[in-house]
């Protein structure tokens, strides 16, 4: 039988972002009990607070919890940051663009997106991005389609290395065959979830 914390982790995994009140209601426990378990899981590095959701009334904002990626202990973020730093040190500013584009090509889907229909290309691109944990979606817009990343797989290194956002632009351009412009980076939505938005065309 799963423990209370295992049930909490399973619930967060199924919903991605939750509040203590939502856990309390779903798992039939007191709000104080839910907050206690979340506090322990946060101290253990298993969950993280990614923002706050305003209360509908005069109450305090509610913390938003998400699983810390990844649950396994490792230093892949540190390794990625060190490797990227070393790579970029080795080339001048002009050559960096080419290097980032080559990295993006390596991350492209093994089968190229070949449909002539942009809607189908967008659907295929989003599918590939979501296999890489971007939690991506696209939406129509008067100025052209927009691709939205609701999760940044590189959040741990994007601070010292904003170049990875340029790599994302190249990745989208290669998959869609249109110019791509990033119009927001880790911008907080009304529900306090950071997202990145790219305009296509």
Beta content comes to: 15-25%
Assign a percent range to the helix content. Answer: 40-55%
Shape descriptor: globular
Distance between the termini: 52 Å
The number of distinct structural domains comes to: 2
Largest sheet: 4 strands, antiparallel
Order of helices and strands: HHHEEHHHEEHHEE
- Given the helix and strand composition, which structural class is it? alpha+beta
Mean pLDDT: 85
Q: Low-confidence stretches at least 5 residues in length (pLDDT < 50)? A: none
Instruction: Give the radius of gyration.
Output: 19 Å
Number of helices: 8
Number of strands: 6
Which oligomerization state do the chains in this entry correspond to? Answer: single chain
Spatial order of the strands forming the largest sheet = 3-4-6-5
Describe this structure in words.
The protein is built from 8 helices and 6 strands, in the order αααββαααββααββ. By secondary structure, the protein is α+β, with helices and mostly antiparallel strands. It has 2 domains: 4-67, Orthogonal Bundle (Arc Repressor Mutant, subunit A), CATH 1.10.10.10; 76-200, no CATH class. The strands form 2 sheets. A 4-stranded antiparallel β-sheet has the order 3-4-6-5, with helices on one face. It has a two-stranded antiparallel sheet with strand order 1-2. The longest helix has 15 residues, at 93-107. The model has no long low-confidence stretch (mean pLDDT 85).
């Amino acid at each position: 039988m799963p423990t209370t914390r295992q049930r909490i982790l399973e619930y967060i995994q199924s919903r991605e972002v939750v509040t203590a009140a939502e856990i309390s209601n779903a798992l039939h426990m007191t709000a104080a009990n839910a907050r206690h378990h979340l506090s322990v899981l946060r101290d253990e590095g298993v969950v993280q607070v990614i923002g706050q959701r305003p209360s509908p009334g005069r109450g305090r904002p509610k913390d938003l919890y998400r699983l810390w990626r990844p649950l396994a202990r490792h230093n892949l973020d540190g390794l990625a940051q060190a490797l990227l730093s070393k790579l970029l040190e080795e080339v001048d500013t002009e050559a960096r663009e080419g290097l980032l584009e080559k990295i993006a090509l390596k991350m492209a889907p093994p089968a190229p997106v070949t449909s002539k229909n942009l809607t189908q290309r967008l659907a295929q691109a989003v599918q590939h991005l979501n296999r890489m944990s971007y939690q991506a979606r696209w939406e129509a817009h008067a100025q052209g389609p927009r691709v939205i990343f609701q999760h940044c797989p590189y959040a741990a290194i994007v601070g010292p290395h904003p170049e990875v956002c340029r790599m994302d632009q190249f990745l989208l351009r290669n998959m869609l065959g249109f110019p791509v412009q990033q119009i927001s980076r880790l911008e907080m939505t009304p529900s306090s979830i950071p997202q990145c938005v790219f305009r296509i065309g």
